[in-house]
Amino acid sequence: MAYAVENLEKLERRVTITLPVEEINAEVEKRLKVRARTVKAPGFRTGKVPLKMVRQMYGIQINADVLDERINKAINEAVAENKLAVAGPAKVDAKTEDVPEGMLQFYATFEIIPEVEIGDLGALEVEKASCEVTDEDVEKTINILRKRGAHYHVKGEDSEHGKGNGSDVAENGDRVTIDFVGKIDGVEFDGGKADGYLFVLGEKQMLPEFENAILGMKVGESKTFELPFPENYHGKDVAGKTAEFTVSVKKIEWAHLPELDDEFCKQLGITEGGADKLREDIKKNLVREIKNRIATINKSNVFAKFVEANAFDIPKAMIEKEIDELIDFTRGDLAVRNPEHKDDELPRDMFTKQAENRVRLGLLLGELMKDNILAVSQEKLKERAEEIASSYQQPQMVIDYYMNDANRRRELENILMEENAVEYIYTKAKVTEKVMPFEEVMAQPA
Fold first, then answer.
1. What is the mean predicted confidence (pLDDT) over 397-403?
2. Which residues contact 45 (CB under 8 A, 6 or more apart)?
3. Alpha-carbon torsion 332, 334, 339, 340, what sign?
């Protein structure tokens, strides 16, 4: 057996493997004789089946097994001798031209993991976002909770809570009941008509142009207006088109919010301390949520700059594997969020750029890990597990979940290593501080 390694383009390597036919045949014959000792066939006792029949029964498979073993052995030796880090399985093809007499030759083609060199982090320019939770943010959150507990009264009619603000027109915060019909080029379209449709103005349940057209209308009034659908509207049949809607207002109701009293607080799980304790708990939760979201924003921004500044070739095999994982994750997410779309075709090229960035980032972080820069201590692991557990009713169960299960502990360790990477880059790069408004941070993915 002999082999030779050659460089193809970029990260591709090819091993040419030469195997003597005589040697392969000899090994096949040897294994056929061993197999013959236990072969059973009709009309023959065990071990007495003629070798010719055994060869007919098992020859092709044994020959393939011997070739596979010899080829894999050659690949492994070539990889070890040349100190190659293989990125994926080799593609083996038989060589058919210019093969020496009495020999078999094969090409084994594979990609290698590149040697990564991290550029000057001091030249990297990154933003470091921050956000403070104010008392005003706490009050806004309380108002959101109160809105969720709102009940409605017809505008202009007496109720246990009066007549509202005295207005009889539709305003933001009002719940309206309407009939509407939409047409494109004079023809009604699917989903463009409803009777007795109910929604709250200002809650972004409808397109802004639709809600704005209803503001100021009274019960019994009708209005016709044009509405251009966005190009990226979820309804493909109407996306990018302009419809004409006719709307009739059937009912307008104003919202009465529950008072911020002990009873309201009890409904939210605050049994003692009333509104002051509610504000304290809300602020604590908001601070924790803002901290997590800011960490996500900073990590995303820093890693994007880090990857952008360190361009190098990456193996196609690793990209394809990452695309497979992204597709699997997306399908799982669709199965939960939009089950009717879970089997939709997902074009692979839709994930290519994201997969490339993830692979490149993984290799870069792997390089940082070589010098133990991102190491995570057991104390830090437990500290983070305790932090996560603090918002649960049975914190010790959550701590045990992360600390006693190897997979969960590894997940937590990976999160902390990524955070360590961000902090390490901040110590080297040119950092610009950026204070973000509370609403903008909360609008970001958790």
1. 92
2. none
3. negative
How large is the angle between the packed helices 352-369 and 406-428, nearest 10 degrees? Answer: 80
Q: How many CB atoms are located within 10 Å of the residue 60 CB?
A: 11
Q: Which two tokens stand for residue 19?
A: 């195997």
Domains annotated on the chain, with CATH = 2-111 (3.30.70.1050), 150-256 (3.10.50.40), 264-442 (1.10.3120.10)
Per-residue pLDDT of 330-352, as tens digits, reads: 988 888 887 777 778 889 999 99
Three-state DSSP at 171 gives coil
Give yes or no for a contact between 219 and 249, defined as CB atoms under 8 angstroms apart.
Answer: yes
Does residue 112 register a pLDDT over 70? yes
Q: 328 vs 153, 338, 415, CA distance in Å?
A: 48, 15, 21
Task: Enumerate the β-bridge partners of residue 251.
Answer: 177
How distant, in Å, are the alpha carbons of 187, 205, 219 from that of 210?
19, 10, 17
DSSP string covering 358-414, please?
Answer: HHHHHHHHHHHHTTTTT---HHHHHHHHHHHHTTSSSHHHHHHHHHS-HHHHHHHHH
Question: Residue 58 is encoded by which pair of tokens?
Answer: 């098992």
DSSP string computed for 280-331: HHHHHHHHHHHHHHHHHHHHHHHHHHHHHT------HHHHHHHHHHHHHHHH
High-pLDDT (> 90) share of the chain, %: 82
Q: Whole-angstrom Cα distance, residue 123 to residue 116? A: 18
